Every structure is written in structure tokens, then in C-alpha cells.
């Protein structure tokens, strides 16, 4: 029964209808049958059997023998199934030809489109703390070598909640310059400490000019006060341009040389108190 079911399924997958497949398999049982015998043997309605047999004959799966009662015989499977395969091969050649012509027609349009870019395609503006936090997390997963960061309040994603950033320290070098004022919050202190223990190189200054990140010497993210938007929601500019990244990296390195370590920053904060 399993072999019968499998044969029906495979014949239908090659293009026969279910009734055609059942009738053909039934015809294999002996040298010839009447239409009524095939209908009964294959469980096909009598009203449909003649149409099914006619279709099998047209497709090269059966032949008929005239007489007082017409009898039907199956054609050899190698010839019958082979004919189906030939039909599929012919259709596949047509499909491949159509696909090849389509590729030849579309490729020039694709190549032409690559030469027409918007002058500011490398720039985007992100608004809202949630949007910025999500984008920053996505970028952290794409860093390959290095990220340089200026961190100052307000912070869209608190340091102590930046799980993705800590995980990324296993894959790339991270250097961050923080404003010392952030150390007035115990939770932030512990968050920074965890980052340092995970491998981040951190230094501190009294004041940073802006919040900024430089990724793999090519992408720059920086926050600027939006003169239009107001409230606690942040606005961030993202520019993917190596020249800008190189220029701002010079600024980062200059401030890094002037900044102090985590331990010295904590001591300075205690003395100030």
C-alpha cells in the first residue's frame, strides 16, 4: 500500500492528475482492462473514467484496443515516464532561456543604478531615545575592530543596562572617554566598572564637547542639540565616511592623552566632595 501511495504521489508530482495516476497504476496490473474494470480497480467515478483514459492515451501512458468492448493497456513505464521527463526538460530549457534573457536585460539597469547615488546617502538622522538605543545596539553587533566613544549626559541607554556593549568587548577594542560628572551616580559607577573589567579602556575628563562614537574608522555617530525638537528625546546624526571618521579620531586621541584613569577620576570626585 505504501508503494502504491508513493507511486501515485510521484506521478502527480511529475504532472499527472490524481485520477490519471491511479488509472495508470491500475493498468499495470495485467495486459488489458475494460473502462469499467479500471474505474472499479482505481476507485474512479464511472462518469470520469473515459475522460481520464483518453487523457492517458494522449499523453502516451496508455493505448486502446478496439472490439465489441474497448480494452485499455498501460504503456511501458520507461517510455511513459520518460515522456513526462522530456516535457519537463523542454519547459526547463524555456525557463532558463527566459531567465537568461531577463538577466541580460536587467543587468545594465542594475549597473547604471549603482552609478547614480544620492549625495547624502551616507548620512542619516535618528530621533528618540528608543530609536537611538536600538541603532546603537545593532551597530555594536557589527563592529569588527574598534569603537571610540565620547560619553556624556543625557544617555539614551544607561551604561549599567548596556548588555550588548559588554558582550561586544570580546570581539573588538573599545576606548571610552566619560565626563567625570557621570560618576556621581553609584549605578553608573558600577556599570562603568563592569565595562572596564570586561576589557574596555576608559578615561575621564571634566567636559566633552559632544556625545560621539567612531566605529571601525569609517562610521561616526554624534548627538547635537536639536534647535527644533525639545524635551528629553535625543537626536543623533550618523555619517558613514572614512574622512570624517579620521578627522574626529584626531580629536578623540588628543582628549584621550589629557584624560585621567577611572581610579584617579574616583579620587578626584572624593576630594571635590
Could you walk me through the main structural features you see in this protein, from its secondary elements to its overall organization?
The protein is of the alpha+beta class and 273 residues long. Helix content is 52%, strand content 18%. The chain folds into 2 domains: 1-116, Arc Repressor Mutant, subunit A; 123-272, 2-Layer Sandwich (Endonuclease, Chain A), CATH 3.30.870. It has a 7-stranded mixed β-sheet with strand order 4-10-9-8-5-6-7, with helices on both faces. Strands 1-3-2 form a 3-stranded antiparallel β-sheet. Helix 7 (163-168) links the parallel strand 5 and strand 6 (173-179). 21% of the residues are buried.
Biggest sheet overview: 7 strands, mixed
The low-confidence runs, each spanning 5 or more residues with pLDDT under 50, are none
Q: What topology, given as strand order, has the largest sheet?
A: 4-10-9-8-5-6-7
**What best-fitting shape do the alpha-carbon axes yield?**
elongated
- What is the total tally of β strands? 10
The CATH superfamily title of the largest domain: Endonuclease Chain A
Regarding CATH, which class of the largest domain?
Alpha Beta
**Whole-number total of structural domains:** 2
Q: Give the assembly state of these chains.
A: single chain
Distance between the termini: 88 Å
Structural class: alpha+beta
CATH topology grouping of the largest domain: Endonuclease, Chain A
Mean of all residue-level pLDDT scores: 86
| Backbone CA Rg | 37 Å
> Into which percent range does the helicity of residues fall?
40-55%
Share of residues in strands: 15-25%
Amino acid at each position: 500500500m505504501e508503494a502504491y501511495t508513493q507511486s501515485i504521489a510521484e506521478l502527480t508530482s511529475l504532472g499527472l492528475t490524481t485520477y490519471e495516476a491511479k488509472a495508470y497504476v491500475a493498468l499495470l496490473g495485467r495486459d488489458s482492462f475494460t473502462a469499467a474494470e479500471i474505474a472499479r480497480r482505481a476507485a474512479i467515478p464511472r462518469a470520469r473514467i473515459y475522460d481520464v483514459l483518453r487523457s492517458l492515451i494522449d499523453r502516451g501512458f496508455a493505448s486502446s484496443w478496439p472490439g465489441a468492448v474497448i480494452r485499455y493497456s498501460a504503456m511501458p513505464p520507461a517510455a511513459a515516464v520518460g515522456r513526462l521527463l522530456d516535457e519537463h526538460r523542454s519547459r526547463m530549457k524555456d525557463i532558463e532561456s527566459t531567465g537568461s534573457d531577463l538577466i541580460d536585460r536587467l543587468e545594465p539597469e542594475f549597473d547604471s543604478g549603482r552609478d547614480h547615488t544620492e549625495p547624502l546617502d551616507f548620512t542619516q538622522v535618528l530621533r528618540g531615545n528608543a530609536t537611538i538605543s536600538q541603532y546603537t545596539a545593532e551597530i555594536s553587533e557589527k563592529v569588527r575592530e574598534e569603537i571610540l566613544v565620547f560619553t556624556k549626559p543625557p544617555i539614551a541607554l544607561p551604561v549599567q543596562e548596556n548588555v550588548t556593549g559588554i558582550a561586544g568587548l570580546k570581539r573588538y577594542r573599545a576606548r571610552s572617554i566619560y565626563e567625570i560628572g557621570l560618576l556621581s551616580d553609584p549605578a553608573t559607577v558600577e556599570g562603568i566598572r563592569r565595562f572596564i573589567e570586561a576589557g574596555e579602556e576608559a578615561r575621564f575628563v571634566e567636559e566633552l564637547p559632544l556625545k560621539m562614537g567612531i566605529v571601525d574608522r569609517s562610521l561616526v555617530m554624534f548627538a547635537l542639540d536639536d534647535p527644533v525638537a525639545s524635551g528629553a528625546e535625543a537626536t543623533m546624526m550618523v555619517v558613514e565616511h572614512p574622512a570624517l571618521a579620521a578627522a574626529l579620531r584626531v580629536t578623540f586621541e588628543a582628549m584621550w592623552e589629557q584624560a585621567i584613569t577611572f581610579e584617579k577620576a574616583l579620587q578626584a570626585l572624593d576630594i571635590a566632595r
